[in-house]
Write a structure and sequence with these properties.
158 residues; Multidrug-efflux Transporter Regulator, Chain: A, Domain 2
Length: 158
């Protein structure tokens, strides 16, 4: 990696747009980056590492306000390490709770999908419905019809 990168190069490496990178700087998420003599931004390796961490925070759905508070603490130096650790621990607890909730939701979806598969299986393999009153011998029962109640109650010979 070159020692300093342009905004275009950082955008390509991070997947962020140049507009988003400028916004992150205005919002205080990124400290103002070094500038070339013509005023173009020049990002260092440490800037790129920090942007990578911000992207991780964003992936975990940390609100921008919390990201800004974290960035502010970071800019204040090593003395804020305990506060930053606590902030990350709290956020991690929220992330893990969210993961647990999503896993439970995924299990419920799996169960419902299996339920519907079970309902579909008999439909796929069900025989053709029997046609009553058909003269086709393939659709007639091989057994003789059962006698009605009156026929069963008759005594032989009498």
């Amino acid at each position: 990696m070159a020692s300093l990168l342009t905004i275009t190069e950082v955008a390509e490496r991070t997947g962020l747009t140049a507009h988003t990178l400028r916004y992150y700087e205005r919002a205080g998420l990124i400290v103002p980056v070094a500038r070339a003599p013509g005023g173009q931004r020049r990002y260092s390796a440490s800037d790129l590492d920090w942007i990578g961490f911000l992207l991780r925070l964003r992936e975990t759905r940390m609100p921008i306000g919390q990201m800004q508070a974290f960035a502010q603490l970071r800019s204040e130096g090593e003395g804020t390490a305990p506060a930053r650790r606590e902030m990350l621990e709290q956020h991690l607890a929220q992330v893990l709770a969210s993961i647990d909730a999503m896993q439970q939701a995924a299990q419920a979806l799996h169960a419902k999908i299996e339920h519907y598969r079970d309902l579909e299986t008999p439909l796929r393999y069900a025989p053709e419905p029997r046609k009553e009153n058909s003269h086709d011998p393939r659709h007639q029962s091989p057994l003789p019809p059962r006698p009605g109640k009156a026929a069963r109650n008759r005594r032989p010979g009498g």
